[in-house]
Amino acid sequence: MSLPRVHVIGLGPAGPDLVTAGAMQLIATIPRQFLRTERHPAAQVMPQAQWFDRLYESASSMPQVYQSICEALVSAACEEHDLAVQIGAVGEVLYAVPGSPVVAEHTVELLLSDPRVEVVIHPALSFLDLTWARLGVDPVELGVRLIDGHRFAVEAAGQRGPLLVGQCDNSFTLSDIKLSLDDPPSSPVVVLQRLGLPDEKIFSVDWSDLDREVIPDHLTSIWIPEFAAPVAAEFIKLQELLTRLRAEDPWKAEQTHDSLKRYLLEETYEVFEAIDSYDSESGSGATELCSELGDLLYQVVFHSAIASEAGWFTLSDVALAIHDKLLARHQALEQALGAQLGSADVAQVVALWESSKVQEQSRSSALDQIPAGLPALARALKVAKRATGIEGYVAPVDSAGLDFAELDFSELDFSELGTALLKLVDLAQERGFDPEEALRQATDQRIEQLRTVERAGSENP
After folding, report:
1. Burial letters for 405-428: b for 16+ Cβ neighbours within 10 Å, e otherwise?
2. Can you tell me whether residue 151 is helix, strand or coil?
3. 170 and 216 in contact (C-beta within 8 Å)?
4. How remote is the C-alpha of 123 from its chain's centroid?
5. Where in the chain is the domain with CATH 1.10.287.1080?
6. Cα–Cα distances in Å, from 220 out to 65, 190, 315, 406?
7. Which residue has the higher pLDDT, 119 or 1?
8. Please, what's the b/e burial string for 304-319 (b: 16 or more CB within 10 A of its CB; e: otherwise)?
9. What is the dihedral of CA 348, 352, 355, 359, to 10 degrees?
10. Do the beta carbons of residue 47 and residue 109 sit within 8 Å?
11. How far is CA 381 from CA 122, 155, 402, 432, in A?
């Protein structure tokens, strides 16, 4: 069965003279047309097209803009297809983007991954072709990396340059780029604007003046020949140090995932303790918390290094896995709640989050993959939380009315003690408490009380 079809063309980097003949033929033959933005010097070749500029003003984030554009295109293609199949044809729409469809076009990436439509990409001249000509460089020989200015901090991580930063379309983006580097380039960078147009500008600027001397627009990019140090240099240095220590330190060299388990647990509890001692208002304990988080991070890097040496995964894979996992779960929330996500009830969000985890992990039951090694209270609470996502589950009605006066503790057997503790966990779940944390704090208070008694006894023998 044929799918609705979306033809994607590029309008080139400048005026109508750089739009390809193939693109002009498609413009002449496909009636229903869309432009990602009217703000392009070649937009005049599509006077009948619908623009998506309004979404840039109404959406709360750039990912939401791209997703909304994709949904609108798919919807339009499906509408055209419903009409076309009646005469045995395929419904088509035309979508035009600035430059080339295959260079830094996130809407095209979304379309290509959408199973509801067939996407046909047509080649076009990119702003990159003009850039290399103006700079007089061979990007292949230099190993140039193209970076999206809106995602500079992430995409430039670990890079030394040279980099070409596109999508530098507003002052906020330039400020974010400038402030993302602790050790900025010592030499000026090159700003390229409106290449191929009569008002083309190419000039150098110091890094500190990037958001002060540059008036950005949608045809602005930045050429960074070299960094003083790699972006996210501290993280890279930690990886390199551990690689060296694994080679030179016999103890570190012989460690395995199993041998490191106890250290991972110890460091986790030390982070717990540091958090308890941290005051977010005064900042007291911040240095200790920072140090303990570093120790915990070291364990993650260590495990990743062991896996990398075995050829299974790297630290980058670990970061990418959690990034993709969080993004997929958040997209499931956006799909379920739409514009109500920001004002949704927390319990509703948690239930949807748990549901997405069930689908993601291919669990046959909501109770699968609850670690048996969890502390008993934490495990019981996790069961109670998972239970809220089970269709037909009814919370225990007697937990809120738990009356310890009715319990005969002198006759309480092992099983009854477990039942009483479980009822307390149900009560904690209903009221949003963490029973593990409550017991920890109560134990800390008892320790202080006992220390007071102990000190009093030593002072009065």
Report:
1. eeeeeeeeeeeeeeeeebbbbbbb
2. helix
3. yes
4. 30
5. 233-313, 373-461
6. 20, 11, 34, 75
7. 119
8. bbbbbeeeeeebeebe
9. 170
10. no
11. 54, 39, 17, 10
Is residue 435 reached through a cis peptide bond, with omega within 30 degrees of 0 on the bond before it?
no
Dihedral angle of Cα 156, 160, 163, 169, to the nearest 10 degrees: 40
The angle subtended at Cα 302 by Cα 308 and Cα 376, nearest 5°, is: 115
Find out whether 366 and 389 touch, Cβ atoms under 8 Å: yes
At 303-353, the pLDDT tens digits run 999 998 999 988 888 988 898 888 888 887 777 777 666 666 777 777 777
CATH code of 233-313, in short, is 1.10.287.1080
What distances in angstroms separate CA 134 from CA 194, 214, 264, one per listed residue? 12, 19, 53
Task: Read off the amino acid at residue 391.
Answer: E
What's domain 130-224's architecture?
2-Layer Sandwich (3.30)
DSSP strand pairing (189-193 vs 220-224)? antiparallel
Q: Which residues contact 459 (CB under 8 A, 6 or more apart)?
A: none
Q: How far apart are CA 195 and CA 198, in angstroms?
A: 8
- Residue pointed to by tokens 């627009």: 217
Mean pLDDT over each residue of the chain, to the nearest integer: 84
373-461 is classed CATH 1.10.287.1080? yes
Find the Cα–Cα–Cα–Cα dihedral 335, 337, 340, 341, rounded to 10°. Answer: -80
Q: Tell me which residue of 431, 417, 344, 340 sits closest to 385, measured CA to CA.
A: 431
List, by residue range, all CATH 3.30.950.10 domains of the chain: 130-224
How many angstroms separate the Cα of 19 from the Cα of each of 7, 100, 130? 15, 10, 14
User: CA 202 → CA 14, 144, 194, 195, 419, distances in Å?
Assistant: 15, 19, 9, 8, 75
Q: Give strand pairing partners of 33.
A: 94
* Domain 5-125 in this protein, CATH class: alpha beta
* Residue pLDDT, tens place only, 88-136: 899 999 999 998 999 888 899 999 999 999 999 999 998 899 999 999 9
| Domain span(s) for CATH 3.40.1010.10 in the chain | 5-125
